[in-house]
Amino acid sequence: MTSLAPHIEAFLREHLVRHRGASQHTCDSYAYSFQSLFEFASRKLKVAPSALMLEQLDAALISSFLEHLETARGNSAETRNIRLAALRSFFRFLQHREPAAVEQVRRVLAIPFKKTDTRLVPHLVQEEMQALLDAPDPSTRQGVRDRAMLHLAVCAGLRVSELTGLRTDDVAPQSASIRVRGKGRRERALPLWKTTAAALRAWLAIRGSVASPELFVNARGEPFSRWGVAYVLRRHTKTADRKCSTLHGKQVSPHVLRHTCAMVVLQATQDIRKVSLWLGHSNLTTTEVYVRADPTEKLEAIEAVVPPSLRKGKFRPPDKLLALLKGKP
Q1: Is 194 one of the catalytic residues?
Q2: How far apart are CA 214 and CA 163, in angstroms?
Q3: Which of 82, 109, 136 is the last residue of a domain?
């Protein structure tokens, strides 16, 4: 039997970090996938996670785990595919370290990704966006910080990892622009709306001297986590919900704010390439999802088309008495 722990440690600390140069966000995502799998396997096999053996992680167990994510935990097919991608990456790494497990690896790699529905991206309309940005109280230190954070998330369309990783030295003088370290180690510079720059300057003026270089810090002077950002957003969404009824029941996540920024830029420029540059997409195909959600171009197409004529006629309901008689046996 082969112990699993040394392989996981080598994969996370050596292969991902040193050989592939993966970001901390990618490493954390992979680690969480393994954590979820080992907790599931521990309950199913009734062994401690540290006692799991490589041979026990066969294709049948992993398939059961993926089904558990969707049925018991309510995860979407997209989340299932993310977990499977991490596991497949690990097993591809294993086939060079454990040649004897080649058949086990082959069976795991044969587990297919699940097809997902292509839905319209959720985003906020103008009234909802304004209600959310107005929710923080600017008369308090926390409110000034949250206002700047929300404005920046909407204006720049930042991923939550980009927002939490933003540093004070990434902000240009007078807060006119920011430098963003994006996915795949791609950097981009983004100009800021005047209102966003004003909100950011107000926060920098009272941020004070803290040990952490990150732009947004909590009350203890520590950088925000992705869960901290989600908590702040959830709290202010409840406040905005009282002023904007259409927000009621709407799921507002940090990524919804990113989608909102994309829709604002698309409607302002009518240029999908500028949206791609703004969001830091490596492939223009990724950005096409916003075109499907924007009705503007469809309306222009409808106005340009000469529709077929409608056959004239008028519906005349049957006489009530005759209809009554026809209905009799």
Answers
A1: no
A2: 9
A3: 109
CB atoms closer than 10 angstroms to residue 155? 24
pLDDT for 273 equals 87
Q: Known catalytic residue: 123?
A: no
Instruction: Check 255, 273, 274, 312 and give the catalytic one.
Output: 255
Helix (H, G, I), strand (E, B) or coil at 177: strand
pTM of the model: 0.69
Q: Is 183 a catalytic residue?
A: yes
Residues 209, 221: Cα–Cα separation, whole Å: 9
Give the pLDDT means over successive 10-residue stretches in the chain (329 positions).
Answer: 83 88 84 94 92 91 95 90 94 89 93 82 90 93 94 91 91 89 82 92 91 90 90 94 90 90 87 86 77 62 61 74 70
Choose the catalytic residue: 15, 123, 147, 159. 159
Q: How many CB atoms lie within 10 A of CB 99?
A: 9
Provide CB contacts within 8 A for 134, sequence distance 6+.
240, 243
pLDDT at 303: 58
Among 25, 183, 243, 250, which one carries the catalytic annotation?
A: 183
Q: What is the pLDDT of residues 90-108, one digit of tens each?
A: 999 998 888 888 999 999 9
Our answer to whether residue 326 is catalytic in this structure is no
Q: What is the H or E stretch that residue 7 is in?
A: helix 5-10
Residue 102 included in any domain: yes
DSSP 195: H
- Specify whether 278 is located in the same domain as 168: yes
- The verdict on 176 and 95 lying in the same domain is no
Task: Choose the catalytic residue: 83, 145, 151, 281.
Answer: 281
Q: Which of 123, 151, 258, 259 is catalytic?
A: 258
Q: Give a yes or no: residue 320 inside a domain.
A: no
Residues 212, 179: Cα–Cα separation, whole Å: 18
Do residues 293 and 275 make contact, with C-beta atoms less than 8 angstroms apart?
Answer: no
Rounded to whole angstroms, the Cα distance separating 14 from 232 reads 35
The pLDDT of residue 306: 63
